[in-house]
């Protein structure tokens, strides 16, 4: 049809509509006008006389539902403002002059042009942003703690030292050749600074910057070994950090494994690996002359990497973590030093601590979603959170049944299913909820988060071996398994 033909038909319509008539259609020699009043306006469908009037009415009814969805107000100004969106929606409802078998919810989804790959990409990018923010906060906290500790030490020992002693300490530290792992034992706690030098250092802040630079040198040495250092893989959200609570024992060991897994929704694993770290914290300089005896479970695909300053032959033959130079202690202070890293690959789907299955099904104008979890008997899982993406909703979804608790995040359009503890009493559970009709791919990717007090490698420190005379110092160790990236796509 030409534009002049359409304009002529529309111009003739107001003359054909009478007042007080009950029917909502008008026929001429060639066309049929099917219309519906919407407040002060008319919604009009023009067809030929051979079309099915019932189908025309059904089309009109569908279009009348779309108008309030896109127009802010049902008047001429509101419709003009939403003209482009309305034209796009009408184009999805009518194709080549025929009505499409679609619903209002499906048309809205088509117009929004939602992409599963785009959602997954945004989720990954947001995860990286969160990791960067967590790393920034951690570094700020470490620097502030370092400033406080240095200030306390300077005030406590300043009267007991002379300028000559201070110079001697600096020369001994420089004589080590800038070894990053042991530099902290000399720069962490200055052993006496005169009051004049203390005031100067506080104003200028030069010594404070020096410590941060040495820490970066240590991280760079890890990078040179091809390691994925901890600052690049910080856990996000509710996951625990290695340095969260100050230890009460002279020596503290933190053992942490992170799960990286992507599971396909139709069964099968896209990737599955474990990355572990053993970090040591020594509070006093005198307790740094030690070695750590460890043991672990022998697993296929388990490979270790030690820090360059660790005696690798001793570690490989006797599973003892010790420095190459026995005259140098491990660094002391409030910061933890990663000594050993490991990775577990070649894991199968049966080794998953938690598997999640999602079954969306469309029935009429609603989509019913059934989600179930099954936990392995290897671990007791704490603070489990399963996050399911939802289509854009005006209100919370209708949760019919759930084992645990749920929360609706309207800003991010997420349904969070949380279980405080999964143990022998609840190795499996399910949840059912309903939302308006939506594409099944809308509910993916599902993100899973949890923690456990045991690890895949079952690595632990069995004893502390002192290198000097005296009883072995007391030590504590914290072992945990956390999720770094756990997705069902």
Automatic annotation (TrEMBL):
It comes from Urochloa decumbens. PROSITE patterns: MHD. This is Coatomer subunit delta. Residues 248-489 form the MHD domain. GO terms for biological process: protein transport; retrograde vesicle-mediated transport, Golgi to endoplasmic reticulum. It is a peripheral membrane protein. Its main location: cytoplasm. Oligomeric complex that consists of at least the alpha, beta, beta', gamma, delta, epsilon and zeta subunits. Coiled coil: none annotated. It is found in: Cytoplasm; Cytoplasmic vesicle, COPI-coated vesicle membrane; Golgi apparatus membrane. Gene3D superfamilies: 3.30.450.60, Mu homology domain, subdomain B (2.60.40.1170). Keywords: Cytoplasm, Cytoplasmic vesicle, ER-Golgi transport, Golgi apparatus, Membrane, Protein transport, Transport. The coatomer is a cytosolic protein complex that binds to dilysine motifs and reversibly associates with Golgi non-clathrin-coated vesicles, which further mediate biosynthetic protein transport from the ER, via the Golgi up to the trans Golgi network. Coatomer complex is required for budding from Golgi membranes, and is essential for the retrograde Golgi-to-ER transport of dilysine-tagged proteins. InterPro entries: AP2_Mu_C_sf, Coatomer_dsu, Longin-like_dom_sf, MHD.
């Amino acid at each position: 049809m030409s534009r002049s033909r359409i304009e002529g038909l529309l111009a003739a319509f107001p003359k054909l509509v009478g007042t007080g008539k009950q029917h909502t259609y008008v026929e001429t020699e060639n066309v049929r006008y099917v219309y519906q009043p919407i407040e002060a306006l008319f919604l009009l469908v023009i067809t030929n006389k051979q079309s099915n009037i019932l189908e025309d009415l059904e089309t009109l009814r569908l279009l009348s539902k779309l108008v309030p969805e896109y127009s802010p107000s049902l008047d001429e100004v509101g419709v003009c403002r939403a003209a482009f969106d309305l034209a796009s929606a009408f184009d999805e409802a009518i194709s080549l002059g025929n009505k499409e078998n679609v619903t209002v919810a499906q048309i809205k989804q088509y117009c929004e042009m939602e992409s599963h790959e785009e959602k997954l990409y945004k989720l990954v990018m947001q995860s990286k942003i969160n990791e960067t923010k967590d790393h920034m906060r951690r570094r700020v906290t470490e620097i502030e703690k370092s400033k406080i500790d240095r200030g306390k030490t300077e005030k406590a020992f300043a009267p007991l030292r002379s300028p000559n002693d201070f110079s001697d300490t600096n020369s001994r530290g420089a004589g080590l050749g800038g070894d990053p792992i042991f530099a902290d034992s000399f720069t962490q706690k200055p052993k006496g600074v005169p009051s004049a030098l203390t005031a100067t250092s506080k104003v200028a802040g030069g010594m404070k910057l020096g410590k941060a630079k040495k820490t970066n040198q240590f991280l760079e040495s890890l990078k040179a070994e091809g390691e994925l250092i901890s600052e690049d893989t910080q856990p996000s959200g509710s996951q625990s950090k290695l340095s969260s609570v100050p230890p009460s024992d002279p020596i503290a060991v933190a053992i942490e494994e992170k799960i990286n897994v992507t599971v396909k929704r139709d069964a099968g694993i896209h990737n599955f690996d474990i990355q572990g770290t053993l970090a040591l914290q020594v509070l006093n300089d005198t307790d740094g002359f030690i070695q750590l005896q460890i043991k672990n479970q022998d697993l296929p695909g388990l490979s270790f990497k030690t820090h360059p300053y660790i005696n690798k032959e001793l570690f490989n033959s006797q599973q003892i973590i010790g420095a190459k130079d026995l005259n140098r202690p491990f660094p002391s202070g409030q910061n933890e030093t990663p000594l050993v890293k490991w990775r577990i690959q070649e894991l199968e789907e049966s080794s998953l601590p938690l598997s999640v299955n999602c079954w969306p099904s469309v029935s009429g104008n609603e989509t019913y979603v059934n989600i179930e979890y099954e936990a392995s008997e290897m671990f007791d899982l704490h603070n489990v959170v399963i996050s399911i993406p939802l289509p854009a909703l005006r209100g919370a979804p209708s949760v019919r049944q759930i084992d645990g608790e749920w929360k609706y995040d309207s800003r991010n359009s997420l349904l969070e299913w949380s279980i405080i503890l999964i143990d022998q009493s609840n190795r499996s559970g399910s949840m059912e909820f309903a939302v308006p009709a939506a594409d099944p791919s809308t509910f993916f990717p599902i993100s899973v988060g949890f923690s456990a007090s045991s690890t895949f490698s079952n690595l632990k420190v069995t004893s502390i071996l002192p290198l000097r005379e005296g009883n072995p110092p007391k030590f504590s160790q914290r072992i945990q398994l956390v999720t770094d990236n756990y997705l069902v796509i």
